[in-house]
UniProtKB/TrEMBL annotation:
Ranges of residues in domain ABC transmembrane type-1: 107-298
Keyword Membrane listed: yes
Similarity comment: Belongs to the binding-protein-dependent transport system permease family.
Name of the protein in its database record: ABC transporter permease
Disordered: region residues: 15-41
GO biological process, one term: transmembrane transport
Compartment list: Cell inner membrane; Cell membrane
Membrane topology: Multi-pass membrane protein
Extent of Polar residues compositional bias: 18-27
Keywords recorded for this protein, A-Z: Cell inner membrane, Cell membrane, Membrane, Transmembrane, Transmembrane helix, Transport
């Protein structure tokens, strides 16, 4: 083959993959810093840190899994003593717990308290957060610090004086007293969650709405509220979980007919009398299952990983 033919055949051979091309020096130099950075990231310290993180996660998950598995099997066991597994399984203890602890009434009270606290916290907290985000006034930082106090200090420190006041005014032991007690930490929580969401929304939207004749109520309902939906859902979800597990304030202010599920579970464990441990474990499983169910339902309406991005992108869409 002549030199000309060899020259013409080389591109065809390259297209057909008949020979390997040599990487250019430029691409090799460009890949070198990336390789060095990757080697630095994959050093002994990085590998040790990754092993520690995975070890801690596995240790936590194994412990939680073993506790839940033990409580679950004990609540379903006919008899479990000295053997790796129960001798048999039954739902008798769940029926007994439902009957003995009057769980139907307790669950209804829990739904009333949680629903009222979430709705009131949102209804009062969102306008308050809007006022804090849009206005500047002397003592604003002090006001934010006051809102932080119920979240920073243990509930026992202010729960006992608050319960004393509620009993003096006749609200102790009532459903309204339990709701008011749970509002004390929940309302500041909503304000602190919603204030950054409102600060991220462009204030020029309000000016544009004013130009087109919208008053404050119309602007809030048609412009601001749709942009705040992700934040409202996130705040409502967090308040819901917090209220379900709030023991101290509910314990101090609840009466015999206004106990939530977590307080009823405490009385089932520590009150006088002899109770089967399987029945108490069954009540604990009911509490965990209902809490998980409420959280899963709430997560159908909000994705925590996308909350900030939605608020940032919303004004652009307008």
């Amino acid at each position: 083959m002549s030199a000309t033919n060899k020259h013409l055949a080389s591109p065809l051979a390259a297209q057909n993959g008949d020979f390997m091309t040599t990487p250019s020096p430029v691409s090799s130099l460009a890949a070198a810093p990336t390789t060095r950075r990757k080697m630095r990231r994959e050093g002994p310290g990085s590998r040790l840190w990754r092993v520690l993180v995975w070890g801690a996660m596995i240790f936590f998950l194994v412990n939680v899994g073993l506790m839940i598995a033990t409580v679950t099997m004990n609540s379903l066991a006919t008899r479990w003593f000295g053997t790796p597994l129960p001798e048999g399984f039954t739902l008798h203890w769940y029926a007994q717990a439902w009957r003995d602890f009057q769980l139907a009434d307790v669950l209804w009270v829990t739904v009333e308290v949680v629903g009222a606290v979430v709705l009131l916290s949102i209804a009062l907290g969102v306008p308050a957060a809007y006022a804090l985000a849009r206005t500047q006034f002397p003592g604003k930082k002090l006001a934010m610090l006051v809102f932080l106090l119920p979240l920073m200090v243990p509930p026992v420190t202010y729960g006992i004086p608050m319960a004393t006041v509620l009993y003096k005014v006749g609200l102790g032991g009532t459903l309204m007293g339990v709701i008011l007690a749970n509002l004390v930490p929940s309302l500041p929580f909503v304000i602190l969650v919603m204030t950054p969401f409102i600060e991220q929304i462009d204030p020029n939207l309000e000016a544009a709405a004013r130009i087109f004749g919208a008053n404050t109520l119309k602007y809030f309902r048609h412009v601001l509220l749709p942009l705040l939906v992700p934040g409202i859902l996130a705040a409502g979800l967090l308040v819901l979980v917090r209220t379900i597990g709030m023991f101290e304030l509910t314990f101090f202010t609840a009466g015999p007919d206004t106990q939530t599920l977590v307080v009823a579970l405490y009385y089932a464990v520590f009150s006088t009398g002899v109770r089967a441990p399987q029945s108490i474990d069954a009540m604990a499983m009911i509490y965990m299952a209902i809490t998980l169910l409420w959280v899963l339902i709430a997560l159908q309406f909000v994705s925590p990983t996308q909350l900030v991005s939605r608020v940032k992108e919303a004004p652009k869409g307008e």
